Backbone:
């Protein structure tokens, strides 16, 4: 694929570096191992194992300058209309930081604080009730962020509630979940920015019926009238706003389930960790800005080296849901191929993002990472201090994390080709001091900012997701055919054949 004149600058560096070996680059530069690293609060990131030299780094910083990254970051915080196709700002930073200048960002921050206070009241009221179980009903950004944070912070749960998640429209998910719960002691939170998402409305209706009415039904939505019409009492609806994208929303009342699991104080710590990252990203020059580095390396691997997939490899069981969360954040935000002006983007954009937790993944797909025909760059993520006392296990975990990063980069020469490791597989090494709410907040905010910077470099809108609409529309058109058995409106011959097969076997 051709590239923009701005991206062309990477071509010459890529030609020079594409066959350079990472261990040689590291050996050549005695300060590289420690020098290509940044720390922000509890988060350390090392970029020494990328196929980049000092000149290429300079070119990347130049690219960030040419693309106007610092001004674009400022515009995000200040509430500029960065979501052009929907004519909206994207003010997720205002949910946790008071860094935006101007009325729009300040108002957003004030509103967020007011709703957080109301959310604290609802958390306290629920804690004083007989409720023991909470079901978060939502999908996409109304599920993945809270689900990740609740799981990641499991060691800090207050123990007051068990928190469950129901996302898929597949009825077996609802059946399986509800089988183990008592409707008299369960509350449901229907989380949907639009309050128009099919899965959430169907599952919400199941919960409403199962609970026997709206008494223990809560909602989080930007469509408050929609939630009320569904049967949720106004006093139990927490608003969100069109200036928060679903996949950027866990810091809002979408995080209600997180607050119920860990308490408001820890929820605030999560926000504080993100706010620390916000302050860094807004204030640091591109040459020492962690989110900008992370984004530039992503763009280098994608556009300089032409690598089309990226692995997220957390070495902590509590971050097992991170790849799924980042799949939405990265692929829904960056899976675009036109500019905000509707012109085709002339460089490759979002890689396929996937991953899994270490060490378990070492015994499944790591074979392909080490000896497969494709090079897959990776983010390896570790936690220094565990929250358990099994020291031997933790030492083994850290040794494996370090070993895999080394093996991917350095490879191994062997006479037998079957036993040869090509190496030269780039990776970023991220370390959290401990998996605290602050560190988790900082980590997730880093990825949010990196995604936004990548969108600026690629000249795409990170905040819309028109690509998900067509399938929803066709599903709506096909529902009568599936439900009523009539082929009226079914135009595609393959779909007609498949419907006939379903009916024959149904
Ligand atoms: O279909 C995609 C999407 O709109 C996501 O962007 C969003 O996070 C998810 O659906 C859920 O949307 P809502 O919160 O409006 O139910």
Residues:
């Amino acid at each position: 694929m051709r590239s923009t004149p701005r991206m062309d600058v990477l071509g010459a560096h890529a030609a020079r570096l594409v066959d350079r070996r990472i261990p040689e680059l590291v050996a050549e530069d005695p300060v590289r191992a420690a020098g290509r690293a940044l720390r922000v609060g509890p988060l350390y990131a090392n970029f020494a194992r990328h196929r980049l030299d000092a000149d290429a780094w300079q070119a990347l910083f130049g690219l960030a300058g040419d693309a106007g990254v610092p001004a674009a970051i400022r515009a995000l915080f200040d509430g500029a209309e960065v979501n052009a196709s929907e004519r909206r700002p994207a003010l997720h930073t205002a949910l946790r930081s008071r860094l935006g200048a101007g009325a729009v960002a300040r108002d957003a921050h004030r509103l967020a604080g007011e709703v957080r206070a109301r959310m604290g009241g609802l958390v306290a009221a629920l804690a004083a009730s007989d409720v023991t179980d909470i079901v978060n009903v939502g999908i996409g950004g109304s599920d993945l962020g809270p689900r990740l944070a609740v799981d990641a912070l499991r060691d800090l749960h207050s123990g007051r509630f068990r928190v469950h998640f129901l996302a898929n429209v597949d009825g077996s998910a609802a059946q399986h979940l509800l089988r183990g719960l008592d409707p008299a002691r369960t509350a449901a939170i229907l989380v949907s920015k639009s309050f128009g998402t099919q899965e959430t409305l169907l599952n919400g209706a199941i919960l409403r019926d199962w609970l026997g009415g709206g008494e223990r039904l809560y909602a989080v939505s930007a469509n408050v009238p929609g939630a009320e019409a569904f049967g949720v009492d106004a006093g139990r609806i927490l608003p969100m706003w069109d200036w928060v994208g679903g996949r950027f929303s866990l810091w809002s009342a979408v995080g209600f389930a997180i607050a119920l699991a860990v308490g408001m104080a820890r929820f605030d710590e999560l926000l504080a960790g993100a706010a620390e990252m916000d302050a860094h990203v807004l204030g640091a020059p591109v040459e020492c800005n962690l989110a900008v580095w992370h984004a530039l390396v992503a763009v280098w691997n994608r556009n300089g080296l032409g690598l089309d997939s990226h692995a997220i490899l957390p070495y902590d069981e509590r971050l097992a849901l991170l790849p799924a969360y980042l799949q939405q954040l990265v692929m829904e935000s960056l899976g675009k191929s036109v500019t905000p002006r509707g012109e085709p983007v002339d460089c490759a954009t979002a890689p396929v993002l996937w991953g899994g937790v270490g060490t378990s993944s070492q015994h499944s797909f790591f074979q392909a990472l080490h000896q497969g025909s494709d090079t897959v760059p990776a983010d390896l993520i570790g936690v220094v201090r565990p929250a358990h006392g099994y020291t031997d296990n933790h030492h083994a975990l850290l040794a494996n994390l370090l070993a895999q990063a080394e093996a991917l980069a350095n490879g191994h020469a062997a006479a037998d080709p079957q036993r040869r490791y090509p190496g030269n597989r780039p990776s970023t090494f991220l370390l959290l001091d401990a998996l605290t709410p602050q560190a988790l907040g900082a980590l997730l905010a880093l990825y949010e900012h990196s995604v936004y910077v990548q969108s600026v470099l690629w000249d795409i809108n990170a905040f819309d997701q028109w690509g998900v609409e067509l399938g929803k529309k066709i599903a709506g058109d096909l529902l009568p055919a599936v439900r009523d058995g009539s082929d009226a409106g079914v135009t595609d011959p393959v779909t007609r054949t498949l419907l006939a097969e379903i009916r024959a076997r149904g």
In short: Residues 26 and 292 are 22 Å apart (CA to CA).
